[in-house]
Amino acid sequence: MKTFLLFAILLLSFTVANAQHEFAPLVEKEIKYKDWTYKQVRDDKELNLLSAASGKKLVLVVYFAPWCPNWKLQAPVVQKFYEKYNADGLEIIGVGEYASVDSMKTSLDTYKITFPVVYESDSTAAKQKTPHYEYRKTTGDTRNWGSPWSIFLVPSQLKKGEFLTEKAFVVNGELIETESETFIREKLGLPKDEKKAQVSISKQGEVCDPNETSLKKP
What we know:
CATH architecture: 3-Layer(aba) Sandwich
Strand content: 15-25%
Number of domains: 1
Structural class: alpha+beta
CATH superfamily: Glutaredoxin
Largest sheet: 8 strands, mixed
CATH class: Alpha Beta
Number of strands: 8
CATH topology: Glutaredoxin
């Protein structure tokens, strides 16, 4: 039994370590993004987006499926942003998709996520029925599951009504860390970070598939 558990842990570590990145650029897109109120993963209490954004300078909403290798690669990066910039006015909210709430909780514990996380759906059957699906299709995301998918919102520019905004910066894939951090610092009114790094953007197909157990692309 111990041998099997050790093998399972090693296999999971190998899978995540060798998963192919799906970096995507930060691009401003037309998107009619609505306010929402969802239950939180940890305690089932409701969280309203507009209320959570109040008093903040920038909000990053990250949609993710907990089983997705690309989310597992991005989770530490997003958590780092939260720890580094939350005190400066950055709010980050995760929106879980296409999996059980228990698996979302496990993901949050595994990657030591401390920012608020809600869930929009709790089954793979909801794939084409969520606002997340409609948003990413509107912004040109051609991936199968679209995890992770991110949108940056500037609270001072949000409007009350049917749509909070009709234009925003989105990322149809994994965040490019250096690009995203530069954007965050700018919106928070912080000086530029002089550290530079080159990151190549993958244009290949998505590796996320809840039924995929190997490293082959679906």
